[in-house]
Amino acid sequence: MIELRDVSKTVTSGGRPLTILHPLDLVIARGQFLAVLGASGSGKSTLLGLMAGLDAPTTGSIRFDDTDITTLDEDALARLRGATIGFVFQFFHLVPSLTALENVSVPMEIAGRRDALSRAESLLAEVGLASRGHHYPSQLSGGEQQRVAIARALANDPPVLLADEPTGNLDSRTGAHILDLLLEVRRTRGTTFVLVTHDAELAALADRRLILRDGHATLESSTAAARTSRVVSV
Prior knowledge:
- The chain is α/β, with parallel strands linked by helices.
- The chain has one domain: 3-Layer(aba) Sandwich (Rossmann fold), CATH 3.40.50.
- Helices cover 32% and strands 31% of the residues.
- It is built from seven helices and eleven strands.
- It has helices at residues 44-51, 74-84, 100-110, 116-126, 142-153, 172-189, 200-203; strands at residues 2-13, 16-28, 33-38, 59-64, 67-68, 85-89, 160-164, 192-197, 208-213, 216-222, 227-231.
- The strands form two sheets. A seven-stranded mixed beta sheet has the order 6-7-8-3-9-10-11. Strands 2-1-4-5 form a four-stranded antiparallel beta sheet, covered by helices on one side.
- Helix 3 packs parallel to helix 5 and helix 4 (116-126) crosses helix 5 (142-153).
- The model is unreliable at 223-234 (pLDDT under 50).
């Protein structure tokens, strides 16, 4: 479970305070698929960075189960991220000098897993790239690079997967394949999945949608019969 209590983010811009995210309370249940929807500059990526512990909130606390990540030092945060969170980004962030296999195996080698290479091979096979492990990112298509990034995100079996516009740099057909893959990962692994997107059609597939407008949040819950909405602590 991920729980945000009174979480906000304010920065200084031009000598004045600028609130990117207004106070927000949110609970994401284990195994749930939450889509974070909004226009550019609405605070989506800021919220995801806060959930990941990549940035600190101005107010409030963020808990992963019984751990308040806002109280952890950088070393403890790094350990938590390595064990708990998988990331998928819009621009892949693969290491260009490493092969696909090496890109996937690195997180496991850092974690001290002796089976890093064999598991990396299995993960590449899982995302349909069993024959492409020896290729470098520059030798792969955009969709293939994103599948490598997904395999890397799954390296340490994280219970939480955070994806920031994972289809935004791909054509619509390839993007649909990537989303199908992410949804299959979520279904088969029971992963808690948070997807940041500006695409309402993608967001409609989620269990719930958090809509951000100028840092203010509205939560929509899906049911088989209807979709209801309420304002979340703004």
